[in-house]
Amino acid sequence: MPGFAFRARTGGAHAGTLGGMTGAHGELVEVDGARAAVDKLVELYETATARAREILASGDYVSWNEVVYPKLAVNVLEWRPIDRSEPFGYVNAAGRYVAEFARPQLLRGYLLEQLEALTGNYPCRIQVGPSQTRIPPEYIRGVGNIDEARRAGDLGDAVPRPTLDDVHDAIVDGHWDAFHGEEKPLFQFGPQRFDLACARIEHYTGIDVDSVQKYILFTNYAMHTSEFVRFGLREIDDPDSRYTRLLLPNGEVLEAGHGAELDELDLASSHQMPRYDLVTEAGDGLTMINIGVGPSNAKTITDSLAVLRPEAWIMIGHCAGLDGRMRIGDLILGNAYQREDSILDSRIARDVPIPAVPEVQRALEASVNDIYGGDRSLMRTGTVLSTGDRNWEWHTPRDLWEWLRGSTAVAVDMESCTLAANGYRFRVPYGTLLSVSDLPLHAVPKLPAQAQAFYTSSKEAHVMCAVRAMERLAKDPTKLHTRKLRRTMGEVPFR
Fold first, then answer.
1. 304 and 452: one domain?
2. Pairwise CA distance, residues 259 & 263, whole Å
3. Tens digit of each residue's pLDDT (9 = 90 or more) over 176-219
4. CA triplet 485, 490, 492: central angle to 5 degrees?
5. What percentage of the chain exceeds 90 in pLDDT?
6. What is the pTM of this model?
7. Please, how many CA atoms are within 13 Å of residue 23, restricted to the half-sphere of its CB?
8. Residue 3 lies in a domain
9. Is residue 254 located within the same domain as residue 148?
10. In what order do the strands lie in the sheet with 68-76?
């Protein structure tokens, strides 16, 4: 499978020994401990990208072989049993595990956590050095105009172009070739896959990827983002709050003492998926993204966000209720997913069950109880059916009967199943809390008057249920590192 960044390459980067490397170009050197390894990865990347800017300024394009992603190798010297409750830092066999990284500064905390877990469980040698994978200038921040390099004939060919050859999910999807080379994968993504994902996040949301937080809320309603901003404004003005800044889709940054009211803020965005980051110093705050409508949008954004290794994501949206006993505004806590959207069928077969994540379920249930009180009739736990057809109910009664008679679904939407399936696929805990906006099978279709009345009355409580659930999870993220998202085959040491 050509182009795999993690496959064995010729040269010193995998010289077949566990130590003794000299640190020449393309070779790895042994480092002492996880922190030193992460610091070295960051240093190598910054050095390479600084060199890229020099080369583009000077026209010395043949020197671009110095502009490469850093590489990390963990040599597990001996396999031994570990605590079975640990969700990551596990390998099936001793051996050499490697990864190349783009923008390692974005993952500093994550890399340190994962390396410490792995090296704490097994005797290891850690090596860091330059890889042999060149960085395309399009992925480097702060470069000038690269048109001159592209017009430089044979010299310009020395400067790599972004290529899809190295953009894939072979590791995540457990392909045989990804796991059966001389070097086994350590991390789920290759460096160009990472770079392209970050570029996509910035393209769709409009603001830098650096401030994306570890707990992510998805919606497809501007009214939800407005309520989130209202909450954020209160929090950053509270001296006891852990939140320090609020970033808006237009790039505006609000801090304590901002003096702004919600109605005074410009929340409009020309970008497809406006993003709002409620930031903590540790990066474990909340991000809300208005992803728009449909399973394709849900896949696009989660495909990209997954490279940042968030702790969890939750969908808060509206749905059609399928039970005549429901009322407009009732809540559906999804605990199973009937995938009729087709968007991920080539990656995860439709008949593969997507498990609910108990930690997320409990957090959402507790938050609903806190905010709505003890009204047990308000919330229903059940299967969510996601479809790619926005007008799914526009069928004959017989067709609907035949379609739904064997289903356990209690609600229909368009995004939840994709978000859950990609959460399972990328090992990111997920959940769904939907509000019933219509009952099309029971003579309550979505019409403007009743819909607007529902939106006005329910939006704040609905958003706050998800916010409080995420805050519960953030208090002890170790409880969230579930083993439910680990497969029998095709897993890497890092979560």
1. yes
2. 12
3. 999 999 999 999 999 999 999 999 999 999 999 999 999 999 99
4. 75
5. 74
6. 0.91
7. 5
8. no
9. no
10. 29-31, 124-134, 68-76, 95-100, 184-185
